[in-house]
Amino acid sequence: MYPDSNDKLVHLSTALRKAGAPRVLVVMGVAGCGKSTVAELIGNEAHWPVVEGDALHPKANIDKMSAGIPLNDEDRQPWLEKIALVAQNWIKDKECGIVTCSALKRKYRDIIAQGSNRVCFLYLKGTKEDIAPRLQSRTGHFMPASMLDSQFATLEEPADDEVMMELDVRADQQSIAKSALRALRLLTSDQDHPLHRACASPTATVKLPL
Ligand SMILES: Nc1ncnc2c1ncn2[C@@H]1O[C@H](COP(=O)(O)OP(=O)(O)OP(=O)(O)O)[C@@H](O)[C@H]1O
Ligand SMILES: O=C(O)[C@H](O)[C@@H](O)[C@H](O)[C@H](O)CO
Known about the structure:
Layout: E1 10-12, H1 14-19, E2 24-28, H2 35-46, E3 50-51, H3 59-66, H4 73-92, E4 97-100, H5 106-113, E5 119-125, H6 128-137, H7 148-154, E6 164-168, H8 173-185
Parallel strand pairs: 2-4, 2-5, 3-4, 5-6
Antiparallel strand pairs: 1-6
Keywords: ATP-binding, Gluconate utilization, Kinase, Nucleotide-binding, Transferase
Pathway: Carbohydrate acid metabolism
InterPro entries: P-loop_NTPase, Shikimate/glucono_kinase, Therm_gnt_kin
């Protein structure tokens, strides 16, 4: 059993527990679930670089989403390939890094991971009711809140045989990031692993969702 089983915010897949500590984190989930926020917090704490996946979209995709039209597989293909390149370059160079990407379908995640079990998806799991208010109150972003239905319709939640960790979006962002990093660190006792660069306090408290 996963050693930190008291932490209700995280759930590790069997594939992740088998694979051990990853080198690349893909923070995934529907629009507005908190990918950029959580990726930045983990990146700051672990001293890993963060790439914002939205910055890799072709302009046509941004225009389409801004107009309230959901992307299709064909639209997403070149974008996913760029994200895959970012992830695979880190692995090839024996580096670590974090990239944000909605990665809504399993076949998208397969494109990114390219069969590597060093790539771990951090899935920010929440319901429409949890996430809609965040999108509605967010300003200055191209993604209209009206797109949330299509995001959920497209979403294929990652399964237990994928290298992934589920995180509960109902918690505050600091707790989510802290829980994720602590769980990842427990996957390796090798203190030279880049996950241990900035060690979190083992007694850090975790705020549970209401
Ligand atoms: N755990 C959280 N609790 C409350 N609010 C949060 C949490 N995480 C993020 N937020 C807020 O929700 C909004 C959406 O977060 P963020 O932009 O990080 O999501 P995202 O998944 O990156 O969105 P997108 O896919 O549209 O780029 C922001 O205003 C952010 O401050
Ligand atoms: O796959 C998709 O439909 C898109 O990538 C979106 O999810 C956005 O990139 C992003 O989340 C912006 O809000």
